[in-house]
Structure formats: structure tokens, C-alpha cells
């Protein structure tokens, strides 16, 4: 059967399909319209290929459950199987989190890995208060930025190692290797005698951060059941915030080790400043993250491997991996029936992906297909704004800024920075619930204006005379309130949004690209801050990032559609619309908000971008029109957008 591309056969002579049978459409709607005979035949083929006849009952019954939950009324269920299926489909949200302890052990390991990254990032915050003078970086803004940003420069390229490393090693292997690198390089940061030594150690740390940042969310997502996958993937950013907090706490706890803060003893001379008596504090700060990754290294191989990775290896010819994948799922699900269902479904999705990889060009189609290009653009915007909002200026330099430009003491600077880290973690917790209820787009549009306003508070604070009480109050107030606004919105949303917006068949390529861009801009921010704050003053530099918060709000309004509660098929429709339709919807939303909440016009109807109507319906009872757009290779049903209300 042939699929028509806007009425034209597929380009370049590639095989094409009717829309219902396209491999990428089948990834969105597995087993739709299959007869019982076709389902049974498919199960028979899978059992023969996998040599899992011993588990045939679980896999066959599970396959029908994968087709539809209503199949549970037609297949015999044990009491325990029915009970756990009821938990999966419970309307009580907390029931969905009643999962096997082994799954939460895996999530705990991934959370520790995320905390490792956060701690790696902020260990430098307090340490540089002491080492910049000891290593001759005081007054050398360019070199200080180069040293501090070294890991993120490496990450911008190391992220591309994620694909070959996951191919050669398993998910656990990549986590093991990268955490070991993190531990060793953090230890190496404790022994520099010159700034070049510290630069090399920190650059090598990037090999421990980059691939890990791409692999751990994938590992958690592939192990988690679908009904709580979003919440578990979000754990990455939340526990990164926890690690950031740990870095601040370590700075405070280790600041007065030996005589590191004693100005009378350690006030002059590089030899004195580099002695163990005077430099042990900052050396321990830089080395402090080394213990946590060792816990992950010792722990990760006690966990089951990603079932999806095992099935991928099995389909490549290693038949023993089929049983390993089933056993892994048995550890991550309550019953063998659920394991059989997920095994059959994952295998089917992998088969569809393989067909797509042969028939289409996953990498180039990220840019050539409008649907993919718009998803990539939205993901780029969120990843770049995560850095240009200025959060990592506070994460990496707050202690130095407070000491040098607000005239706080060393210990006060560290304590105030620690307060920001605690706020960053605590206010990320509500996003576990709001990200799937309030929505990704709404969280961003609600928080970005406040981020900009609170950055302006910091701008005003640093424009006031030094040492004034008003300056001290406004600096802390602006910094802390910025953290309150950032943590539930732009903190967790970019990684969740990027992971779900791209089609399955090129998601790995898309995530690698947007993660690399995120680290590149991370490096640019950390590298340029010392020079920028010197050239434009601290007040002017914070003004630059405040401006980006307001610019970011408009780009989100026009180019970042909502993805909450949407299936892959729905996302095809959303991103299938041309950019001008998304911009028009953003204007409609803004017009509605102003009319409803500023002018009090309560009768205004809220604009809705996507609703699936009756295909034969032209107008509804409010006179709102249905529009049909045809673009790219996706034939979409007519969908509803309320424009002009």
C-alpha cells in the first residue's frame, strides 16, 4: 500500500504507506484495528523468534492488554493480576505510585546520579572565593571564566558520545563509567598548583557530566511504567537541584577548615595560599562531590538493565537477551502479566523504529520536516533560555558576587548562596504535580515574567551604594525570589519537553542535539560572566539576563505549544500546524488573558488550540471554525482551534 504525501507519492523513491500503516503512525497507535486472529498470529511469531514459549501464557494475555485495557474482561485474570491492573488505572493519582521496590531502587540510583551532576556544578561556587587568589586568577576575569566553564565546554561535545557509548556498553555501563570519571576528576581538582592544572581536571570532568546527563533520564524512562513516566523523568532536574544544594552546603561546612579563612595567617604569598594549612578548605570543596558517584558505581549493577536496551540487542541477534528483558521487566512490574504486556509492546515499537530507520532519514528529517523542525525549535528555545535567564550565574558565581560587589564576608556569602540552593530544591518539588496538571506551557508563561522582575530587583540592588542596608536586603530578596520563580518552571520543563516533543524514531538524535546546545550555552554563560560583570558592571550584566527573561516569555508564547496530556499522535497534529498558526494562538491567549483578568470580561471563552471534533462537523454551536492544514508527510484529521476570541 502506498501513502500519499499531500497527494504526491513519497519523495526520492523511498517506500511510502497509507497513513494508518505508516511505521511512525503505528508507534503512536499500536495494534489499532487488529483482529484477534492477527494478534494471535503476531504473538506466535514473537514467541518463535524470542524462544520464550515457557512464558507464552503471560505474553499472549499481555499482548491483548497492550491492544486495549478492555481485554481484561475477556482474558482470565488471577486475583493479584486484577488488583495490580486496577492500581494502574486508578483515578486516585497516588495509586499509580504504588510500584515494586526494585523500580524505586532504580529511580533512587538515577536520582543520586542527578545529584552528582548538581554537586559537580556548584562545588566551584564557594571554592573560587579562595582559589582565585591562590592560583593567580584574581583580576584575570577571562582565565577565571575559562577555568570555571571548562566542564561545560567539554559537555557540549561529550554529549555526542552518548550514542556510541550506549551502543557499546549498556545503560548501566555508561552510568558506571561516567560516575567513575566524575569521582576521579573531582579528586584531581583537589591537587592543582597552577590554574592550568585545575583547568585540565575540570575539563575532564565534562566527560563524566555530558553522557551521564543524556543517559540517566533515558534509563529511568525506559524502566518506568507509562502511567508515571513523566513524574519519574522529572526527577532528573529535581535531584540535580538537590545536588546543587549539597554543593552550597559543602562550601559553608568546609570554609573554615584549618586556617583557610584566617586572613592574618593566609593573607599574603602564593606559597602560603597554596599550602595545606591555607588551601585545604577549597581543595576539599572541589573534591567533595567525589563520594556520591562512588555510591552510584557500587549500586548500579545491582539493578536490572533497561528492558528496551536488552530487546534492542536481542533483535540484533543475541537471542538470550529476550529472556533477560522479560526477567528485567518482572523485577520492575508487579506481575508477569504486566511484564509480558510491556515486553510485547516494546518489541513491536522497536520493530517500527527499525523500519523507519531504513525508510527515512532520522537526523536530516529533524530539519527538513516542518513537524520535527518546529518541535526542535521549541526545544532549542527552552534549553537556551534555561541558560540565558541567568540562573547559572547565581549557581556558579553568587559567593564571589556577594563578596566582591555587595561587601559580604566570606562566610556570609557562602551562607546566602546556600539559601539559594535550598530554595532551588524545595520549590522544584511542586512541579512533580503541576507539570502534568497545570501544564508545561502555562508553568513557563506564569513564571518567566516574575523571573525578569526579580532579576531587575537584583539590578537595582547592585546600582545602590555599596554596604547600604537597602542593597543587602534587595540582593538577597531578588536572588531568592528568582529561585522561587525558576525552580517549578524553567528548571524542570526543558528536559521533559524536549524528551516528549520529538517523534520516537528520531528522539535520540534530537535529545543529543538539544542537550549539547544546553551545555554549550551553559559554558558561554560561565565563561563570559567575569568579563561581562567587569565591562558592564554587575548591575548591567544582571540587566542583560533580565531582558532575556522578558524576551523568552514572548518566544514561548509564539513558538512553544503545550504538550501536556497529548499522545504522540496529538503532538503530530500540534507541531504539524505552521508557525504562524501557533503565533496567532499565542496572540489569542494574550488577548483573552488581558480581557478576562485586566478588564474583567468574564464571558470570554478561553482559546483552545487542539480539540478532536466530529470529522463531519463544519461549525459548532458557537460558530467556531475548524481548519484543516496539510503539510509535510502527515495527513491529519481536522482539528479545532479557537481564533479571535
Automatic annotation (TrEMBL):
It is a multi-pass membrane protein. Residues 106-564 form the Major facilitator superfamily (MFS) profile domain. The chain crosses the membrane at residues 142-161, 173-191, 203-221, 233-255, 375-395, 415-435, 442-464, 470-488, 509-529, 541-560. Gene3D superfamilies: MFS general substrate transporter like domains. GO terms for cellular component: membrane. Pfam families: Sugar_tr (PF00083). Residues 1-22 are annotated as: Disordered. The keyword Transport applies. One of its GO terms (biological process) is polyol transmembrane transport. PROSITE patterns: MFS. Keywords: Membrane, Transmembrane, Transmembrane helix, Transport. Coiled coil: none annotated. It is found in: Membrane. One of its GO terms (molecular function) is transmembrane transporter activity. The keyword Transport applies. Belongs to the major facilitator superfamily. Sugar transporter (TC 2.A.1.1) family. PANTHER family: PROTON MYO-INOSITOL COTRANSPORTER. This is Major facilitator superfamily (MFS) profile domain-containing protein.
